[in-house]
Write a structure and sequence with these properties.
With about 180 residues, this protein is of the alpha+beta class. Helices cover about 20% and strands about 35% of the residues. The protein is elongated, with a radius of gyration of 21 Å.
Protein backbone atom coordinates (compact mmCIF):
# COMPACT_ATOMS: atom_id res chain seq x y z
CA UNK A 1 0.00 0.00 0.00
CA UNK A 2 1.70 3.16 -1.21
CA UNK A 3 0.88 6.18 0.92
CA UNK A 4 2.63 8.59 -1.45
CA UNK A 5 1.22 7.06 -4.63
CA UNK A 6 -2.41 7.14 -3.45
CA UNK A 7 -2.42 10.88 -2.76
CA UNK A 8 -4.22 12.99 -5.35
CA UNK A 9 -2.06 15.69 -6.96
CA UNK A 10 -3.76 19.11 -7.09
CA UNK A 11 -3.16 21.05 -10.31
CA UNK A 12 -2.18 24.62 -9.44
CA UNK A 13 -3.69 27.67 -11.17
CA UNK A 14 -1.92 28.61 -14.40
CA UNK A 15 -0.64 25.06 -15.02
CA UNK A 16 -1.75 23.01 -18.04
CA UNK A 17 -1.42 19.22 -18.12
CA UNK A 18 -1.70 17.05 -21.22
CA UNK A 19 -1.53 13.27 -21.52
CA UNK A 20 -0.86 11.71 -24.93
CA UNK A 21 0.68 8.38 -26.03
CA UNK A 22 2.25 7.56 -22.67
CA UNK A 23 3.77 11.02 -22.27
CA UNK A 24 2.67 13.58 -19.70
CA UNK A 25 3.52 17.24 -20.36
CA UNK A 26 3.16 20.02 -17.81
CA UNK A 27 3.27 23.66 -18.89
CA UNK A 28 3.28 26.74 -16.66
CA UNK A 29 4.65 30.26 -16.29
CA UNK A 30 8.21 29.07 -15.47
CA UNK A 31 8.56 26.58 -18.33
CA UNK A 32 7.50 23.25 -19.81
CA UNK A 33 8.42 19.76 -18.57
CA UNK A 34 7.57 16.27 -19.77
CA UNK A 35 7.86 12.68 -18.58
CA UNK A 36 7.52 9.35 -20.35
CA UNK A 37 5.21 7.20 -18.24
CA UNK A 38 6.06 3.64 -17.27
CA UNK A 39 3.72 0.86 -18.43
CA UNK A 40 3.28 -0.33 -14.80
CA UNK A 41 1.23 2.76 -13.81
CA UNK A 42 -1.87 4.55 -15.08
CA UNK A 43 -2.30 8.32 -14.83
CA UNK A 44 -5.71 9.96 -15.02
CA UNK A 45 -6.45 13.69 -15.22
CA UNK A 46 -9.69 15.01 -13.70
CA UNK A 47 -10.53 18.35 -15.32
CA UNK A 48 -13.47 19.12 -13.00
CA UNK A 49 -11.63 18.88 -9.69
CA UNK A 50 -8.30 20.01 -11.26
CA UNK A 51 -6.36 17.00 -10.03
CA UNK A 52 -4.20 14.14 -11.25
CA UNK A 53 -4.25 10.63 -9.80
CA UNK A 54 -1.80 7.78 -10.28
CA UNK A 55 -2.77 4.10 -9.97
CA UNK A 56 -0.87 0.89 -10.53
CA UNK A 57 -2.00 -1.93 -12.81
CA UNK A 58 -1.10 -4.79 -10.43
CA UNK A 59 0.73 -5.47 -7.17
CA UNK A 60 4.05 -6.60 -8.60
CA UNK A 61 7.24 -5.26 -7.07
CA UNK A 62 7.97 -2.94 -10.04
CA UNK A 63 4.43 -1.56 -10.08
CA UNK A 64 4.57 -0.73 -6.38
CA UNK A 65 7.97 0.95 -6.81
CA UNK A 66 6.92 3.09 -9.79
CA UNK A 67 3.57 4.02 -8.23
CA UNK A 68 4.94 6.44 -5.62
CA UNK A 69 7.83 7.54 -7.83
CA UNK A 70 5.56 8.58 -10.69
CA UNK A 71 3.28 10.52 -8.35
CA UNK A 72 6.27 12.35 -6.79
CA UNK A 73 7.76 13.20 -10.21
CA UNK A 74 4.46 14.62 -11.49
CA UNK A 75 4.01 16.67 -8.31
CA UNK A 76 7.56 18.04 -8.63
CA UNK A 77 6.89 19.00 -12.25
CA UNK A 78 3.69 20.86 -11.33
CA UNK A 79 5.39 22.77 -8.50
CA UNK A 80 8.43 23.45 -10.72
CA UNK A 81 6.55 25.03 -13.63
CA UNK A 82 4.44 27.12 -11.23
CA UNK A 83 6.98 28.31 -8.60
CA UNK A 84 10.34 26.90 -9.69
CA UNK A 85 13.14 25.49 -7.55
CA UNK A 86 16.14 27.26 -6.06
CA UNK A 87 19.39 26.19 -4.39
CA UNK A 88 21.69 28.69 -2.69
CA UNK A 89 25.39 28.03 -2.21
CA UNK A 90 27.99 30.01 -0.31
CA UNK A 91 31.76 30.04 -0.77
CA UNK A 92 33.80 30.24 2.44
CA UNK A 93 37.55 30.88 2.42
CA UNK A 94 40.08 33.67 2.12
CA UNK A 95 40.49 34.56 -1.56
CA UNK A 96 37.71 32.22 -2.69
CA UNK A 97 35.73 34.03 -5.41
CA UNK A 98 32.97 33.08 -7.87
CA UNK A 99 31.76 34.98 -10.93
CA UNK A 100 29.72 34.45 -14.07
CA UNK A 101 31.23 35.13 -17.50
CA UNK A 102 28.65 34.60 -20.23
CA UNK A 103 27.28 31.05 -19.83
CA UNK A 104 30.17 29.90 -17.63
CA UNK A 105 30.51 29.86 -13.85
CA UNK A 106 34.09 30.70 -12.87
CA UNK A 107 35.35 29.67 -9.43
CA UNK A 108 38.64 30.43 -7.72
CA UNK A 109 38.57 28.14 -4.71
CA UNK A 110 42.17 27.54 -3.70
CA UNK A 111 43.45 25.53 -6.64
CA UNK A 112 46.20 26.64 -9.02
CA UNK A 113 43.69 27.10 -11.85
CA UNK A 114 40.19 28.51 -12.02
CA UNK A 115 37.40 25.96 -12.19
CA UNK A 116 34.96 26.69 -15.01
CA UNK A 117 31.53 25.05 -15.14
CA UNK A 118 29.24 25.39 -18.14
CA UNK A 119 25.76 26.54 -17.07
CA UNK A 120 22.97 24.38 -18.59
CA UNK A 121 20.54 26.24 -20.86
CA UNK A 122 17.45 25.48 -18.76
CA UNK A 123 18.95 26.86 -15.52
CA UNK A 124 19.41 30.42 -14.30
CA UNK A 125 22.58 30.91 -12.24
CA UNK A 126 23.33 34.23 -10.58
CA UNK A 127 26.00 35.53 -8.24
CA UNK A 128 24.57 38.28 -5.99
CA UNK A 129 28.11 38.83 -4.66
CA UNK A 130 31.50 37.13 -4.94
CA UNK A 131 30.78 34.52 -2.28
CA UNK A 132 27.21 33.40 -3.09
CA UNK A 133 25.69 31.38 -5.94
CA UNK A 134 21.94 31.03 -6.65
CA UNK A 135 20.79 28.21 -8.96
CA UNK A 136 17.18 28.45 -10.22
CA UNK A 137 15.08 26.40 -12.63
CA UNK A 138 11.81 24.52 -13.08
CA UNK A 139 13.34 21.01 -13.10
CA UNK A 140 14.10 19.92 -9.51
CA UNK A 141 16.57 17.24 -10.60
CA UNK A 142 18.65 19.54 -12.80
CA UNK A 143 18.78 22.31 -10.17
CA UNK A 144 19.95 19.84 -7.52
CA UNK A 145 22.43 18.14 -9.85
CA UNK A 146 24.12 21.39 -10.91
CA UNK A 147 24.28 22.62 -7.30
CA UNK A 148 25.82 19.30 -6.23
CA UNK A 149 28.43 19.49 -9.02
CA UNK A 150 29.38 23.04 -7.99
CA UNK A 151 29.66 21.95 -4.34
CA UNK A 152 31.76 18.91 -5.33
CA UNK A 153 34.33 21.20 -6.98
CA UNK A 154 35.56 22.11 -3.47
CA UNK A 155 33.74 20.36 -0.61
CA UNK A 156 33.96 22.03 2.81
CA UNK A 157 36.97 20.67 4.68
CA UNK A 158 36.52 19.63 8.32
CA UNK A 159 39.30 21.69 9.99
CA UNK A 160 38.62 25.29 8.94
CA UNK A 161 35.35 24.80 7.05
CA UNK A 162 36.66 26.32 3.81
CA UNK A 163 34.95 25.35 0.56
CA UNK A 164 31.60 25.53 -1.24
CA UNK A 165 28.55 24.65 0.87
CA UNK A 166 24.78 24.92 0.71
CA UNK A 167 23.44 27.98 2.47
CA UNK A 168 22.56 27.00 6.02
CA UNK A 169 24.56 23.75 5.87
CA UNK A 170 26.31 23.01 9.15
CA UNK A 171 29.87 21.70 8.93
CA UNK A 172 31.11 19.83 12.01
CA UNK A 173 34.64 21.11 12.59
CA UNK A 174 37.35 18.83 13.98
CA UNK A 175 39.59 20.26 16.71
CA UNK A 176 42.92 19.43 14.98
CA UNK A 177 46.16 18.29 16.56
CA UNK A 178 46.30 21.08 19.18
CA UNK A 179 43.38 19.47 21.05
CA UNK A 180 45.44 16.45 22.18
Amino acid sequence: MSRVGNKVIPVLDGVKIALAKGELTVEGPKGKLGIKLRPEVDVSIDEDSKSVSVSRKNDSRDSRAFHGLTRALINNMIVGVKDGYEKKLEVVGVGYVVSIQGKTLSMRVGYANEIKKEIPAELTVTCPDQTHIVVQGCDKQKVGQFAAEVRASRKPEPYKGKGVRYQGEHIKLKPGKAAS
